[in-house]
Specification:
flagellum; single chain; 90 residues; Flagellar biosynthesis protein FliQ; mainly alpha; elongated; Bac_export_3
Length: 90
């Protein structure tokens, strides 16, 4: 395996991780902004108000997007295994 191939695998892995994590991070960001806006409007500064909706929202988005995330990671693994087979590495 050359350095170029290793860098290609590494960059593709990082990009796949970012794509797989983006729905979860986007939902946490949007819920957090909504809660912060709500707290600023109502002057309610309850700490659990920030955590509980985020946890529930992240779990819902995770359940919905888990098949898509699994497909992205599976595609990456298949490409890496194909590269290993083509290189003849045992």
């Amino acid at each position: 395996m050359t350095e170029a191939q290793a860098l290609d695998i590494l960059s593709e892995s990082v990009f796949t991780i970012l794509k797989a994590a983006s729905p979860i991070l986007a939902s946490a960001l949007s819920i957090g902004l909504f809660i912060a806006f709500f707290q600023a409007l109502t002057q309610i500064q309850e700490m659990t108000l920030t955590f509980i909706p985020k946890i529930v929202g992240i779990l819902v988005v995770l359940m919905i997007s888990l098949p898509w995330i699994f497909q992205r990671v599976d595609d990456l693994a298949q490409r890496i295994f194909d590269m290993i087979v083509m290189a003849g590495v045992s």
